[in-house]
């Protein structure tokens, strides 16, 4: 771990073109803001420094705005990038003629692609992509899942919102997008395209939207395998916060690609 003057310099946020903040485990946990989070976002807004909140959530930015607002901070949806946003960007770029999409994930994906794609809901209409989320989802109905299987055994591409194996919920642990996608990948013998963290496309597309160079940005997150690995991979500076899944010991024993440039107790350290 860097210490001394080097450590301080990584934590000086004013030097970066943009500050990228993970949400779950960094800015909030369930329905409460974590220490220093609201203050940091308000400070970035006040000084006009470009920033973005990012998450492997399968929802749309609009659906996260109200959650943040309840915690005392108003964030424009343009400053939020979700893995579902990245999946939508991917299909629009991959099939520029207008993708034909079977959505087995969320209403957030409906919202972001409405008017830009042709929706497929059966097993025989032409289909370019199946967008896969978690098993507990409004569109993960038995009929749609069977249609998706047939489409994937045909020409459709398997687009996974992210590769997370599991995710935490108030009930405990749930099957993640990666786990559910693996079921389709196996059944259809098809390689998925992953869109969320730690994929380079996620970080690069976010920076493209912000008009900044990834190598001049800093990412602050709680997860070594999604946040730190992904951001290190595109040349960002990385700060691990200990309010989420990773411990100081995890960071100290991490392989070079997963090692953050600095570790903080919480966003209050900034
Ligand atoms: Mg997190």
Automatic annotation (TrEMBL):
SUPFAM superfamilies: HAD-like. GO terms for molecular function: phosphatase activity. The keyword Disulfide bond does not apply. InterPro entries: HAD-like_sf, HAD-SF_hydro_IA, HAD-SF_hydro_IIA, HAD_sf. GO terms for cellular component: cytoplasm. Keywords: Hydrolase. Pfam families: Hydrolase_6, Hydrolase_like. NCBIfam families: HAD-SF-IA-v1, HAD-SF-IA-v3, HAD-SF-IIA. PANTHER family: 4-NITROPHENYLPHOSPHATASE-RELATED, HALOACID DEHALOGENASE-LIKE HYDROLASE DOMAIN-CONTAINING PROTEIN 2. This is HAD-IIA family hydrolase. It comes from Humisphaera borealis.
């Amino acid at each position: 771990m860097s210490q001394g003057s080097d450590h301080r310099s990584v934590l000086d946020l004013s030097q970066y073109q943009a500050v990228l903040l993970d949400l779950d485990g960094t800015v909030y946990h369930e329905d409460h803001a974590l220490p220093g989070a609201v203050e940091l976002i308000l400070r970035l807004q006040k000084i006009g420094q470009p920033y973005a909140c990012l998450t492997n959530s399968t929802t749309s930015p609009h659906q996260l705005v109200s959650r943040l607002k309840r915690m005392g901070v108003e964030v424009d949806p343009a400053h939020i990038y979700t893995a579902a946003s990245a999946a939508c960007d991917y299909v629009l770029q991959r099939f520029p003629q207008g993708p034909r999409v079977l959505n087995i994930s969320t209403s957030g994906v409906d919202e972001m692609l409405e008017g830009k794609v042709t929706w497929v809901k059966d097993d025989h209409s032409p289909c370019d992509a199946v967008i896969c989320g978690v098993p507990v989802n409004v569109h993960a109905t038995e009929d749609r899942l069977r249609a998706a299987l047939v489409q994937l055994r045909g020409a459709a591409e398997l687009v996974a919102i992210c590769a997370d194996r599991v995710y935490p919920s108030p009930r405990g642990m749930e099957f993640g997008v990666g786990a559910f996608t693996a079921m389709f990948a196996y059944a259809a013998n098809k390689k998925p395209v992953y869109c969320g963290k730690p994929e380079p496309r996620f970080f690069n597309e976010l920076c493209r939207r912000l008009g900044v160079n990834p190598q001049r940005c800093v990412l602050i997150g709680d997860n070594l395998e999604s946040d730190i690995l992904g951001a290190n991979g595109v040349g960002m500076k990385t700060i691990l916060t200990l309010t989420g899944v990773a411990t100081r010991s995890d960071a100290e024993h991490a392989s070079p690609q997963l090692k953050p440039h600095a570790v903080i107790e919480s966003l209050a350290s900034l």
